[in-house]
Amino acid sequence: MARRSLPILKQILSKSSDQCSPFLTPTRSVTYMPRPGDGAPRAVTLLPGDGIGPLVTGAVEQVMEAMHAPVYFEKYEVHGDMKRVPEEVIKSIKKNNVCLKGGLATPMGGGVSSLNMQLRRELDLYASLVNCFNLRGLPTRHENVDIVVIRENTEGEYSGLEHEVVPGVVESLKFCSERIAKYAFEYAYLNNRKKVTAVHKANIMKLADGLFLESCREVATKYPGIKYNEIIVDNCCMQLVSKPEQFDVMVTPNLYGNLVANTAAGIAGGTGVMPGGNVGADHAIFEQGASAGNVGNEKLVEQKKANPVALLLSSAMMLRHLQFPSFADRLETAVKRVISEGKCRTKDLGGSSSTQEIVDAVIAALE
Fold this sequence. Notes:
The chain is 41% helix and 17% strand. The protein is α/β, with parallel strands linked by helices. It has a ten-stranded mixed beta sheet with strand order 2-1-3-12-11-4-5-10-8-9, sandwiched between helices. Helix 6 links the parallel strand 8 (195-200) and strand 9 (227-232). Helix 5 runs parallel beside helix 6 (208-220), helix 10 (309-321) runs antiparallel to helix 11 (325-341) and helix 11 (325-341) crosses helix 12. The longest helix has 18 residues, at 2-19. It is globular, with a radius of gyration of 22 Å. The relative contact order is 0.15.
């Protein structure tokens, strides 16, 4: 009798384990051994920014306080209509090395310089990273999407290097160096990614984009364990919307990367849930990965229904960057649990929850 019941018992146990939520199963990796003093609270420069920025940065402040994260914020008011980023803000970021920011609105035309570009140039934040991936419980057209878009941040057409030669004739400068290729492959290597795809338009821009490809090919030879391929940017956009699961890490010049990142974000679940950041040799700024124009959405501001998920996940990236991995894991797990349960969602995700309701749900999921 005991022999016959054993297979049945195994089957029952197998089914019950399959039904367990991945968020509820207790797991602990090999312990993280900090250096003495690593637990000291770290200062982070906070720029709430424009539009929905104060709402979503306020959400991060509440969650950080609830989880007793070892960070404290130095807050500054910076807005997109300013002529320059205030000097005290630059000094704060250079002192702290890390910044968290909401969106800064950029006026269209009129010769007004983008403060986002000023920050990137002043701090030499040459690499932008956006992680676009499916979230459990959030239905999308495509599954198994997990794309990291790494784009050059200070070079290329999008860097704003342009001038009027004579009235009616504007010249835009484009140049590129190999450091973005080095960063993309280093990222892939350190994060156990298997493939790097270079996005280009070298069939037309043979010199500028040709130089970009030469850099990528040269760096690729130093990483034999990582597959490398190339794709023309227009074909890339078509492939993204038809078979996004084929991409892993994508490295691009500045302008293409902005378009590709927002497209990938829309495919994976929307700009409201995609984290990102900008990094250089010494400093890093973390922000919503893809904005797609929602910074100045006045209706969201009035109703206080902006989606804070993207910036919360960017904050988890920031905590890992600061070497607080357990706090990062707690925050990411709580956010993913709230999305998976589906009880609290903002309008862009098919719900009607307010920003504060999402914050309250995430804080409850931390316990």
